[in-house]
DNA sequence: CTGTTTGTTTGCCG
DNA sequence: TCGGCAAACAAACA
């Protein structure tokens, strides 16, 4: 699940639960998801409080009272769960809190990662992440995409270009902007890019304000043609043609062949 | 058993 | 050195 809107929801969830709480102990149930030295993870959290949250793209950052930063990336299936008595099935790292509650990093497929660092800026530099797509200005988008020759969809998925855009959002943007996912970036016009940028902002805004609850997205959203939502539609909202799917850059890609010509 | 998966990293190639 | 590309990673679920 976790693309930008979900990670923003997790950030808000963290703010409403574990923020300002003190960590008694960190339990590393599966070291696979911990990128750093476990001793460093303990050092910056145990006997410390969670003081501040930030998010860039799909990365969540928590500054602790040790003045260091905890980074959480959710991979394909990660989430957070705050609980007292009912632990999630796949809690890989669990922060046991002084207040008797626990915050688990629940990650069934183990693609998620937890890491520690000196600052958010350091992480952003190290990962070469762009500005968060939700906050990005046109000028940066234009700069990041210009000169590229690859297919447009994989470029939108590139976190150095538009941090936070994931697979369904890229499909949603390209469908609403009526552009084929395999279109070469250098063959698109300024007008195409302005449409892509506008749709990106619009979709992210909608998804974040609906707290990434897919079922509540507008009926004409292409996401309802992926078989993920209760609506489970098959036809394009624009032209009524049946949507098709293919692989682009190795990723499942849904398009309307009528609306998205190469 | 087979195929699929909302993400990122790595290594090869030009 | 850089961009493009495909494979690898891991495990649950249908």
Output the CATH homologous superfamily of the largest domain: MutM-like, N-terminal
Class by SSE composition: alpha+beta
SSE ordering: HEHEEEEEEEHHHHHEE
What would CATH call the architecture of the largest domain? Alpha-Beta Barrel
Which outline best applies?
A: globular
Walk me through this protein's architecture.
With about 260 residues, the chain is of the alpha+beta class. The protein has two domains: about 5-125, MutM-like, N-terminal (N-terminal domain of MutM-like DNA repair proteins); about 140-255, Orthogonal Bundle (Helicase, Ruva Protein, domain 3), CATH 1.10.8. Helix content is about 30%, strand content about 20%. The chain has seven helices and ten strands. It has helices at about 5-15, 40-45, 120-125, 140-145, 150-155, 165-175, 190-210; strands at about 25-30, 50-55, 60-65, 70-75, 80-85, 90-95, 100-105, 115, 245-250, 250-255. It has a four-stranded antiparallel beta sheet with strand order 1-6-7-5, covered by helices on one side. It has a four-stranded antiparallel beta sheet with strand order 2-3-4-8, sandwiched between helices. Helix 6 (about 165-175) crosses helix 7. The protein starts with a helix and ends in a 7-residue tail after the last strand. The relative contact order is 0.13. The protein binds a DNA duplex (14 and 14 nucleotides) through helix 6.
């Amino acid at each position: 699940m976790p693309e930008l809107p979900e990670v923003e929801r997790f950030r808000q969830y963290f703010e409403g639960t574990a923020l300002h709480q003190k960590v008694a102990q960190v339990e590393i149930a599966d070291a696979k998801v911990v990128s750093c030295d476990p001793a460093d993870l303990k050092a910056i959290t145990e006997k410390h409080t969670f003081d501040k949250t930030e998010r860039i793209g799909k990365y969540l950052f928590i500054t602790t009272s040790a003045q260091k930063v905890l980074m959480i990336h959710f991979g394909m299936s990660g989430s957070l769960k705050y609980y007292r008595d009912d632990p999630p099935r796949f809690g890989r790292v669990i922060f046991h809190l002084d207040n008797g509650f626990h915050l688990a990093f629940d990650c069934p497929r183990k693609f998620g990662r937890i890491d520690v660092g000196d600052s958010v800026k350091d992480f952003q530099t190290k990962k070469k992440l762009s500005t968060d797509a939700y906050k990005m200005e046109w000028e940066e988008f234009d700069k990041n995409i210009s000169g590229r020759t690859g297919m447009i969809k994989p470029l939108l998925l590139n976190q150095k270009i538009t941090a936070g855009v994931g697979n369904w959002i890229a499909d949603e943007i390209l469908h609403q902007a009526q552009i084929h996912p395999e279109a070469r970036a250098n063959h698109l016009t300024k007008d195409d890019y302005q449409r892509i940028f506008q749709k990106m902002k619009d979709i992210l805004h909608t998804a974040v304000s609906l707290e990434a609850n897919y079922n509540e997205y507008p009926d004409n959203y292409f996401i309802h043609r992926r078989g993920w939502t209760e609506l489970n539609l098959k036809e394009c909202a624009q032209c009524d043609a049946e949507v098709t799917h293919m692989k682009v850059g190795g990723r499942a890609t849904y398009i309307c062949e009528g609306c998205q010509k190469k």
